[in-house]
Design brief:
The chain is mostly helical. Helices cover about 65% and strands about 0% of the residues.
Length: about 140
């Protein structure tokens, strides 16, 4: 990866406000960060954006980094948190593709927003799915 003295010099440059110190860190950690972000998002452009934002945040918050501790966990934790945050935001979409395939409809690859849950068709679908579940799984008392 990178020599410890180069790494410390890069961090010191960043602490002084010299953005050229970021080059060493990008070369050392960019691929690992991209892999981590991509494993979570499964979307290369999104993973690249997350990593780019993480490096910008390193430049802005390098004073919060404790030089006595390893850099990789501190940095990669931010990347993973951002990727998980993105995944949570996008998972608020409900896909009805499986139900359409079962019913023989043509499936488009669009997602349906959570607000669509208020539509009568979605409510009927939800009712049909819960009606076939065991009473204990529906939240009803078992007899």
């Amino acid at each position: 990866m990178t020599d410890e003295s180069q790494f410390r010099a890069a961090v010191e440059k960043l602490r002084r406000g010299d953005i050229t110190g970021l080059t060493v860190l990008v070369e050392a950690y960019q691929i690992r960060a991209l892999r981590a972000a991509f494993l979570i998002t499964q979307d290369k452009p999104v993973a690249e954006d997350i990593v780019q934002s993480a490096f910008v945040r390193v430049y802005e918050r390098i004073v919060q980094y404790d030089i006595t501790r390893p850099f990789a966990p501190w940095f990669l934790r931010g990347v993973v948190n951002d990727a998980l945050s993105w995944a949570r935001k996008t998972s608020r979409h409900v896909s009805l593709d499986a139900e359409r395939i079962i019913s023989g409809e043509q499936v488009s690859h669009r997602r349906i927003d959570v607000q669509a849950a208020r539509l009568p068709a979605f409510s009927q679908l939800k009712w049909r799915r819960t009606s076939i579940m065991m009473p204990s799984r529906r939240g009803l008392p078992s007899i």
